[in-house]
Amino acid sequence: MRKNSIKNTRVNEEVMREMSHIIRGEIKDPRIHPLTSVVAVEVAPDLKTCKAYISVLGDEKAQEDTIAGLKSAEGYVRSKLAKNINLRNTPEIRFILDQSIAYGVDMSRKIDEINRGQRL
After folding, report:
1. How far is CA 54 from CA 5, 70, 78, 104, 111, in A?
2. 16-42 burial code (b ≥16 CB/10 A, e <16)
3. pLDDT, average across residues 40-50
4. Residue 105 to residues 11, 39, 101, 112, 113: CA-CA distances in angstroms?
């Protein structure tokens, strides 16, 4: 199975959908910020490992706490994935903090400030 094959793309989408459902509704860890989202998931072609890109809308402390909470709940998330998705292997999950949404919001704010300055 190639990295960009249709099967791999489907597996990535299914794991992302299921993981976001688990993080949003089933994990009760208070360290995990309520505005946490799964941006992307990359499952290796051999289904052994998985990189989950997580975005947290909050300050740096909230982001660090959320990643720590997710790392401690990795076994639970993995077992829920195994129950809900029928895969040959359940991938080992590595959570990676993704700053792209916060970066986009910051850039949009800066563009708005520049536009307001030009109107004056």
Report:
1. 23, 10, 16, 15, 25
2. bebbbebbeeebeeeebbeebebbebb
3. 92
4. 29, 15, 6, 11, 12
The residue length of the chain stands at: 120
What distance in Å separates the CA atoms of residue 25 and residue 41, rounded to the nearest whole number?
18
Neighbours of 79 (CB within 10 A): 12
If DSSP codes are grouped into helix, strand and coil, which group holds residue 84?
helix
Domains in the chain and their CATH numbers? 6-119 (3.30.300.20)
> Whole-prediction pTM value?
0.80
Query: Tokens 């700053």, residue?
Result: 99
